[in-house]
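Incident review: delayed structure delivery

Summary: a single-chain prediction request sat in the queue longer than the usual turnaround. Root cause was a stuck worker, restarted by the on-call engineer. No data loss occurred. The affected request and its eventual output are reproduced below so the record is complete for anyone auditing the incident later.

Affected input:
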Amino acid sequence: MKRINLIASALMAAVAVVGMQAQSQAVTVTVDGSAAWEGFMNVSELPANGGGFVFGSGWGVPDLVADIDAVNNTITTSPNTVGDPNEFWYQPGRPGDDPMDPNDNGGPGALGNKSMEANLFVNEVGTFAGQTLTFTGTIDAFSLTGAHVAEVFIKDFEPDFSSAVETSATISSTGTFSITQSLINDPARPVQYGFRMTGENVWVTDVAPFGSVTFGAIPEPTSLVLFGLGVAGLAVGRRRK
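Output delivered after worker restart:
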């Protein structure tokens, strides 16, 4: 009988170790307004002009039209704007523009001349190598029109950023989001998770009619457990009275 109990205990211990190992390979991150957010913009021609890639470069977070509220732990993303009125960025024909002046195309009511993919992300190198990463959060507000597309993503890059493996999901309403990706076990690979806004650039005074998206955090499980213990403690206290 003792031998059977010893075998059972050993099996339970082995299962526990395997469970701990499996748990250590799964990581969940959520929206964190205090994280080190970065920006990158990919610019392409409009589909009507062939849709060819033009350039990509790092952009400041405010230039992505992203508002990070570290106090309330929310991030609001809006359609992309460019303050340069040059014909590179805006099509001619807005009311009051000078058709002979290529630097007079931009202004209220102007139509954008480029498709812009704004990426707002946290960049980690080596932190999640070989693990299964889940990026989750809430969509507290959604008012985008069909002119722009909002997405959440996880990207696992080659060390030189020449290519990446990606998991993404399109956001189309309020609620919650959760995406998961198994990451390659190479500590030299950068891993990025965050938000993407794609669509035609608009003049800064014309942003509001195109809408925006506000993302929030999902409380960590430990926070929920502590909250539950607090409620349980209050209940016990009341019963004791």
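Verification: The chain is about 20% helix and 40% strand.
Action items: add queue-age alerting; document worker restart procedure.
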